[in-house]
Amino acid sequence: MRFDCVHSEEDLAQLVAGIGFLPFFRCRIPGWSLEENIDPAVWFTAADGPWEWKGRMARDKKLVYGKFIRGKAAFVSLTCFPDLANFRRDGYDWEGFVEDAKAPHQDKLLMHCLQERHPLVSKVCRRTCGVTKGYDTALTRLQMQTWIVDRDFVYDIDRNGKAYGWGNALLDTPENHLGEELVNSAACKPQESLERMVRWLNGWMPDVSAEDLRKELKA
Fold first, then answer.
1. In the structure, what pLDDT confidence band is assigned to residue 157 with cuts at 50, 70 and 90?
2. Residue 215: pLDDT above 60?
3. In 153-209, where does DSSP find H-type helix?
4. Which range of residues forms the domain containing residue 154?
5. Looking at residue 60, what is its pLDDT?
6. pLDDT tens string 131-150
7. How buried is 18 (Cβ within 10 angstroms: 0-12 exposed, 13-18 middle, 19+ buried)?
8. Residue 219 within a domain
9. Is 218 a member of any domain?
């Protein structure tokens, strides 16, 4: 299974808008990733490529980016993100999630820091949120539950004023970055959101079983 080859940022935006969900790297479903559908000439290059596109596209709200599929990086369209949030949060808002004791202590510390100071570069959040152990695990869990997204990437600057490195994630809540109206617009039960996402993906990947797609969206 392959989609149209991605040669540019615009190609990627169009693919994500259509398919709804696209892991960055190879995953359990062959062919369902940016890595498998991108022009090798732009995969690793000194010029502008997907490593730079991801932050710019998230910042410009062309899509949503974060660790959304099995704890790994993935792109999600603005159309499909409300269903993902509705399903992953099981219909909760953050206050109800905390009140029902569904958030571990580390997650509450991290979210409190981010809600107070958002947006926040991840390395600053790590240093100031009070989580002494398990920060990466807590952050991944909160992204998988859609409480946190990457809204951009901030690069270190060398003595010549040039950006370098992989970039530091600029974290935010999707409600602050995208707006509460969009995030909470699924307007259905969580299980209905899951089935809607499965049908959407199945329309693009008819050779993949609905059950396999369901497993990936649940993970």
1. confident
2. yes
3. 174-178, 180-183, 190-204
4. 9-211
5. 97
6. 999 999 999 999 999 999 99
7. middle
8. no
9. no
| Residue located via tokens 């809600």 | 115
> Residue 3: inside a domain, yes or no?
no
Residue 1 lies in a domain: no
pTM of the full structure: 0.94
pLDDT band at 213, cuts 50/70/90? very high
Three-state secondary structure string covering 96-158: HHHHCCCCCHHHHHHHHHHHHHCCEEHHHHHHHCCCCCCHHHHHHHHHHCCCCEEEEEEEEEC
Is the separation of the CB atoms in 121 and 154 below 8 Å? yes
The closest alpha carbon to 63, from 16, 103, 6, 116, belongs to 16
Q: How many domains does the chain have?
A: 1
